[in-house]
Amino acid sequence: MTYQMIFGVLRCATFIAIALLGSFAHADNWAHWRGPDGNAVAPDADPPIRFNDSTNLKWKVPIEGRGAGSPVVWDDSVFVVSAVGLSGGDLAKHDFVLLCIDRETGRERWRRVATEAAPHEGTHRTNGFASASPVTDGEHVYASFGSRGLYCYTMDGILVWKRTDFPPMTTRNGFGEGSSPVLAEDRIILPWDHEGQSKLYAIEKASGATIWEVDRDEPTNWGTPLIVDFRGRAEVITTGENYARGYDLDSGAELWRCAGQTQRPAASPVHRDGVVYIASGHRGAFLGAFRVGGRGDIQGTTNVLWTIQRNTPDIASPLLSEDRLYFYKGKSGVLTCVDAQTGTPHYNAQRVRGLDNIYASPVAAGGHVYLCDRDGTVVVIKDSEQFEIVATNELGETIDATPAPVDNQLIIRGEKHLFNFSGS
Q1: Closest Cα to residue 213, out of 221, 223, 203?
Q2: How confident is the model at residue 232 (pLDDT cuts 50, 70, 90)?
Q3: Other Cβ atoms within 10 Å of 110 Cβ, number
Q4: Digit-coded pLDDT (tens) for 95-150
Q5: Residue 383 contacts by C-beta under 8 Å, 6 or more apart in sequence?
Q6: Using CA atoms, how far apart are residues 73 and 204, in angstroms rounded to an integer?
Q7: Alpha helices (runs of H) in 215-314, residue ranges in sequence order
Q8: N-term to C-term CA, the chain
Q9: Rounded Cα distance, 231 and 367, in Å
Q10: To pair with 19 at 20 to 30 A between CA atoms, which of 204, 248, 275, 364?
């Protein structure tokens, strides 16, 4: 076998291993806020279903400042971001902080102030200035603070590079920023949709250099892209008020688009077996199943498998566990579960007792689905075609970030604390 053939085989194997999400996470890591496969499922985790301050609590540590960015986990490290106000008012200076927490003890291993800056515009009262989740490949951890920049650190907290030259975003109604970066092969995909010139960037993860950037005719969007492999070619899937789209990962060229979304989308896509599911639910309702690999405008073609136009999610993203697609109605605690292949409901618009105001996305682990409310309630249901509540838990503080299920643990970032609940 020639050197070129060996190199090609190795490159192909590497690509297959990382294409679905673009991280190097194995099943026991939660390296991105949507988990190892991008669908918010931890296939080998089995966290507890009952927990509070006196039950199955491994540790609880205070987190200074505000941040809706979800925790990510690699081996024994938990990474979270926060924006710590240095004086009164939203537009005062903040420290934009990345924290590394020991997963076993809850001890703070290190904290790095990425930058000290005054935000250029305000944010919604329920949002902060650190709403993008970090992402890691086990060698580096990457934290985006949106208009305040993108930062790369080693796992020991040494700054490798930073990018602070992106144009500041102007978000709709001053609601603030929140889309998260995604790792894909040798690059970071960074969404940049706002009321100015929206863009999608591919940033070389080793150096921080721009590989490509493309303009987008989209207003503010809080969704996070998804990387999907199709016949050995990776697509970057994005939401958008005007169109759902697929881009070529190598070049940034737009491959396909489809209209139908509602205003100011926030939910992120999920995928299975070459099909992506994209939803939005503000001032309207839309959920579509799209076959990847299309070209041009796919509306009305066989690449659109089915659509739903009621009870779709606003802020929280859908959860796809095997062929079960779960999603809320708007921001309410009304849950629907459909067959992902057909869109046929297993149960439709089921009100979940104890849930009323939803920002965090559902996650699945150990045969259960974990549903979080902004009042600190976590309802656990069976991961099945039949709706069944198995536990209701109270944390006593707001939950906006999506939990991270890893091994026998459930790590939850609350408004004031980081919790680690551990089963036996």
Answers
A1: 203
A2: confident
A3: 14
A4: 999 999 999 999 999 999 999 999 999 998 888 899 999 999 999 999 999 999 99
A5: 321, 324, 364, 367, 368, 369
A6: 22
A7: none
A8: 50
A9: 31
A10: 364
d(CA 280, CA 336): 14
Rg of the chain over all Cα atoms, to the nearest angstrom: 20
| CA 333 – CA 243 distance, rounded (Å) | 27
Residue 361 has phi, psi (to 5 degrees) of -85, 150
- Locate tokens 């009262």: which residue? 125
Residues 118 and 131: their CA atoms lie apart, in Å, by: 16
**Strands laid side by side in the 135-136 sheet:** 135-136, 140-144, 150-154, 159-163
Q: Which amino acid is at 70?
A: S
Q: What whole-number distance in Å separates Cα of residue 166 and Cα of residue 148?
A: 8
E strand spans, 118-209: 135-136, 140-144, 150-154, 159-163, 182-184, 187-192, 198-204
Give CA separation, 411 vs 14, 104, 133, 162, in Å.
30, 11, 14, 28
Task: List pLDDT tens digits, range 287-343.
Answer: 999 999 999 999 999 999 999 999 999 999 999 999 999 999 999 999 999 999 999
CA 148, 144, 359, 93 dihedral sign is negative
* pLDDT > 90 fraction of the chain, expressed in percent and rounded: 87
